[in-house]
Amino acid sequence: MKAQWIGAGLAAMLVLLGACGRQTEPESDAVREPTPRTPTALPDVKESPTLAAIRQRGRLNCGVHEGLVGFAYTDNRGAWRGFDVDFCRATAAAVFGDPDAVRFVPLNTEQRFDAVRSGRVDVLWRNTSWTMSRDTASGLSFAGVNYYDGQGFMVRRALNLNSAAELNGARICVQSGSTTELNVEDYFRRRGIEYRPVVVATEGEARQAYAREECDAFTADISALAAARTTLPNPQQHMILSDVISKEPLGPVVRSGDDRWTAVIRWTLNALILAEELGVTRDNVSDLSKNSTDPRVRRLLGSEGDFGPSIDLPRTWAQDAVAASGNYGEIFNRNLGEQSSLDLERGLNAQWSSRPAGLIYGLPVR
């Protein structure tokens, strides 16, 4: 009897389990809708504290070279001129619509980075090479490249030199505390060539020491050498050797930690580069902003889209920047190129679409 009760109970449990299993099966072959997912909310974009401070004071504080022909210098009336100066004015125009809403702060090599970190300047538009250590370990951020340079050597033609490799035992004037000093050491060390560095505190002092014949060669960025040559009593008696011993991508520097302000500088630079590519000049920018049918031009100049407001600037930010100083090519030619005393070729600083092509490439506004 006991065995019969156990068998009957087991059979009953199996029937119940089967019934429960049938109840959990879907009643039809209809496809179930997926459970809706709540979209992840984008974090609130914080206002740039740098831009807020600039607007409150009513001007941009722009760090520049103390005096380098072609890049940043004062003319005989005391007005600031130069390649980097024009980028300062373009930045002020992008923010305020006024290229004169800027204070120029001359800085030497030792002062420049502390001036950015401390907030003494809002942006450093000064011939400064973008390197890994500067970009990652010193509280600074580079916003782009506005000039591709390289280090070279200037010598007197009377020495009859054809290459820097012939400078064995030569006295080389070089600025201390710069990538220039490190590069020249690397160059001669790799080749097993002896040289005697004449190290001075500033680039200006290096130029003066070379002029006094305290050294046989002066090494610096090639653009700086070209500028230095124009200041010598007889420029034609000096030559820049063909050797280029380093890569020197020069560009604007801001404090790290303020991504919105970095974006303002980056896109102001890109707007000027893109303007040249699209044929937008200081003379035609106003007309094109009203009449152009090219969607790329219309986006750039604020006729379509909200690209300026996306970085807390007016819709006309790029139009105002171009109207202030011209496009990239106009700024280059006026200060460094064929319209200037330096008469430098575009070279690597030609547009990517030029023939021969250069490295200047404007990011798309869209």
Approximate shape:
globular
Distance between the termini: 87 Å
Flag low-confidence runs: 1-43
Estimate what percentage of residues fall within beta strands. Answer: 5-15%
- How many E strands? 14
Count the helices. How many? Answer: 13
Please provide the ordered H/E string of secondary-structure elements.
HHEEEHEHEHEEEEHEHEHEEEHHHHH
Side-by-side strand order of the widest sheet: 10-9-11-8-12
Give the averaged pLDDT, no decimals.
89
Structural class: alpha/beta
Major sheet summary line: 5 strands, mixed
Question: Rg to the nearest angstrom?
Answer: 31 Å
Q: What is the share of helical residues?
A: 25-40%
Give an overview in words.
Strand 2 and strand 3 form a beta hairpin. Helices cover 39% and strands 15% of the residues. Strands 10-9-11-8-12 form a five-stranded mixed β-sheet, with helices on both faces. The protein is α/β, with parallel strands linked by helices.
